[in-house]
Design a protein that fits this description.
Blueprint: E1 2-5, E2 11-12, H1 19-24, H2 26-47, H3 59-72, E3 83-85, H4 90-99, E4 104-114, E5 120-131, E6 151-160, H5 168-202, H6 206-215, E7 218-221, E8 224-231, E9 235-239, E10 244-249
Helix pairs in contact: 3-5
């Protein structure tokens, strides 16, 4: 298993603009790029309100611990060694596949963000199990294409402020207060949360997923629609039926 955390500090999340291209084609795509770049710049600036309070926070060790705990309950995967890195690009993963001494490699890619209004902390984990061998008719980089993967799931935990303000800078102050106490607690919870969702997904069968999906209603969490598979006083877990899991903490911090 290879665990990677590409970022050095918390980032800002933002919405990629797509409507220009849909409505105006190439001209609209240029406008989309400009809008997206502006949003990314603004999101990073807003995240900067919280970053100083997180100095010394060790996200990497928590990510390693969460992944190892999830795998400890799934020994059927046969993974006995782990490695860690700061590069989660396609090129890096392909190089690791080429050097692997096993027939397949499990990649755990972590990230953590603040929403653009700073009302939420979001921790994400993308888990991918890929084959080392290149099969006939396949080019090497296609091993990481979704259709060739053995396993691919995405997990996100959303932790909101319990009483957010209407202005983003006030929310930044809330997360940063007391040396980032709320932000640190939210990130720690989020890392543990995505690790537990990963472990839960490994325990599912096609039949069990179908059963829990048919029992739940529709829900949207942070703009992502899906099916409720667990609704409790602590929060809501949704699954889109394909490979995306999102848990929303109810009361916040």
């Amino acid at each position: 298993m290879h665990i990677s955390v590409a970022q050095k500090e918390i980032n800002g999340d933002y919405q990629v603009s797509i409507w220009g291209a849909r409505l105006l084609g190439t001209v609209g795509a240029v406008a989309d790029a400009a809008v997206t770049n502006t949003r990314a710049f603004e999101a990073e600036g807003r995240a900067g309100l919280v970053r100083p309070s997180l100095r010394g926070f060790d996200f990497d060790s928590q990510a390693r611990k969460a992944s190892q705990e999830a795998l400890a309950k799934s020994d059927w995967l046969g993974i006995t060694t782990t490695s860690f890195g700061k590069d989660s690009t396609l090129a890096s993963h392909l190089e690791r596949l080429n050097r692997a001494k096993t027939h397949q490699v499990l990649f755990n890619d972590y990230a953590y963000y603040l929403s653009d209004d700073l009302k939420e902390v979001r921790v994400a984990l993308i888990v991918t199990l890929a084959k080392r061998e290149v099969v006939a008719g396949q080019i090497g980089e296609e091993r990481m294409d979704l259709k060739y993967l053995i396993y691919h799931q995405e997990f996100t935990c959303v932790i909101p402020l319990a009483a957010p303000a209407s202005r983003y800078w006030e929310n930044g102050e809330l997360w940063a207060a007391d040396q980032g106490r709320r932000a640190r607690s939210a990130i720690e919870f989020g890392v543990d949360c995505v690790g537990r969702m990963f472990g839960m997904s490994l325990a599912q069968t096609r039949e069990s997923l179908a059963a829990i999906q048919s029992a739940g209603g529709k829900v949207e969490i942070s703009g992502r629609p899906g099916q409720i598979i667990n609704l409790a006083k602590e929060g809501t877990l949704r699954f889109d039926g394909v490979g995306t899991w999102v848990y929303q903490v109810r009361d916040g911090l």
